[in-house]
Design brief:
about 230 residues, alpha/beta, Rossmann fold, six-stranded mixed β-sheet, 9 helices, about 30% helix, globular
Amino acid sequence: MVLDIDALNVSYGETRIINELSLHCEEDEILAVLGRNGMGKTTLLKSIAGALEPDSGTITFRDEDVTDLASHERARRGITLIPQGREIFPDLTIDENLQMGTYAVGDRQPVDREQIYEYFPILEERLEQKGGTLSGGQQQMLAIARGMLGDNDLLLVDEPSEGLAPQIVSDVVEALRAASADTTMVLVEQNFRLAMDLADRFYLVDHGVVVEEGDTEGVTSEDERIRRYLTA
């Protein structure tokens, strides 16, 4: 098992966001975490990556308890977060942004850039262009490419299709699908169909609690268990 979370509780100040949440992710699996906005999905990913400290519970990565490890130590073990909202370095060039993706790999070997350029050829064409001058879709491509360069054992992807045109979403999906051949992935995504197409299994979260889980095969947005927690 790559990731095992047991009875996790996470708060912002006095407000509990994640409540006794447990889930697991197997080798080479794409796991989708679904739920409405504000239900704790991003908090969960940040907790796995070490950006947030839980109140209690355990996070185990490849049989090692990483609950108390700093984020940079988790990154060295192969846990990489591609955050919502892209969060590239706008004043750095594409080339410099990509270099940042290899700094935390430790003893692991970074992914060959040529492989990344196959997914996102426009990045190779514009290596000297500053990240802040790219379109929203191009910035998302850059954020995903930077995350993929780290030779990840676990890639955490937060809302990759947010705000993107359909054609750009298609490119992003194909890149994530290709990346999943070499890594395990936890995907948070509002686009239900995209999540179902990419993922092997899903967890549905409501107010920080897992309310449904299962295989994605055959699951549709018309299922009552899905509609109950994904519609306003």
